Amino acid sequence: MYYNLPFIIAAVIAVIGIAAMLFRHNLVKVIMGLSLVEAGVNLFLVALGYRIDAIAPIFTNAPSTDMVLPTVQAMTLTNIVIGIATTAMLLSFTMIIYKKYGSATTTTVRKLRG
To answer: Could you tell me the pTM of the whole model?
Structure first.
């Protein structure tokens, strides 16, 4: 029963992030929603590679041959690095928009309206 719990929590976190991105007008809150989606994806990847009673593949003298999947761990680390860079870039864009228009909401900035 608890085997699927990390996947459910990852989906809930991702849905909360998507809702924040769709229904919030403040750019900082939209970026926070994007970070939540990223956290949900990272949790999904880690849960996908987890194996019960397995060890990390960095131990060479391990008594057991069961090891967790290293590929998804590497993908998660890559996703974390890319997510930090993307978040920093989006926050810098938000600062530039705030300096130019005096507001960080999409409703008050005319050029961001679709």
So the answer is: 0.81
